[in-house]
């Protein structure tokens, strides 16, 4: 596998690991995710819990597939990731188009409402997953130094993607707040 494929494997692996872990770190976390799925209004309310379970299981499958050091497993993991991301993108786009402002529970406890940035993020991740799958099948050689850079870059970029909502929220204007002792 070439360095590009390794870097993308790490990027997608971190994103899906953080995503699945953020949804199952406790019953309350999973319940918040179920509420978010229901709040998106793209599946019937009664199906939200089943859909949420399926999402978490599929995200776990991506993580396991990407952890197996076999190129075919990596391709399967990246293909599942691309499919999930495409479905997530379509669901978010439909919700945004309808004016739904439910919080994005993509990585757990975020309060950021779904919006265009989530669509762009998912489209970029879909493109990365497809590119990664194509580069795994194309083969290629990798030097130890190249692998180290690819792994480090993929892990850092994955961490950045998972924290993107929090980072962007730092730059949102602070709303006027009333202080109990005056202005």
Automatic annotation (TrEMBL):
It comes from the Bacteria. The chain crosses the membrane at residues 75-96. Its main location: membrane. It is a multi-pass membrane protein. It is found in: Membrane. Keywords: Membrane, Transmembrane, Transmembrane helix. Pfam families: MauE. Residues 4-133 form the Methylamine utilisation protein MauE domain. This is MauE/DoxX family redox-associated membrane protein. The lineage of its organism: Bacteria, Bacillati, Actinomycetota, Actinomycetes, Kitasatosporales.
């Amino acid at each position: 596998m070439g360095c590009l494929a390794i870097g993308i494997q790490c990027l997608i692996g971190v994103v899906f690991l953080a995503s699945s872990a953020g949804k199952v770190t406790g019953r309350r976390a999973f319940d918040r995710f179920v509420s978010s799925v229901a709040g998106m209004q793209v599946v019937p309310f009664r199906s939200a819990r089943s859909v949420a379970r399926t999402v978490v299981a599929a995200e776990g499958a991506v993580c396991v597939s990407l952890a197996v050091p076999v190129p075919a497993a990596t391709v399967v993991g990246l293909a599942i990731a691309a499919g999930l991301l495409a479905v997530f993108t379509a669901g978010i786009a439909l919700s945004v188009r309808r004016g739904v402002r439910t919080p994005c529970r993509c990585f757990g406890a975020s309060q950021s409402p779904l919006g265009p940035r989530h669509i762009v993020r998912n489209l970029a991740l879909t493109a990365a997953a497809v590119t990664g799958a194509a580069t795994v099948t194309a083969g290629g050689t990798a030097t130890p130094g190249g692998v180290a850079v690819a792994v480090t870059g993929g892990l850092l970029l994955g961490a950045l993607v998972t924290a993107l909502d929090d980072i962007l929220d730092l730059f949102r204007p602070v709303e006027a707040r009333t202080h109990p002792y005056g202005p």
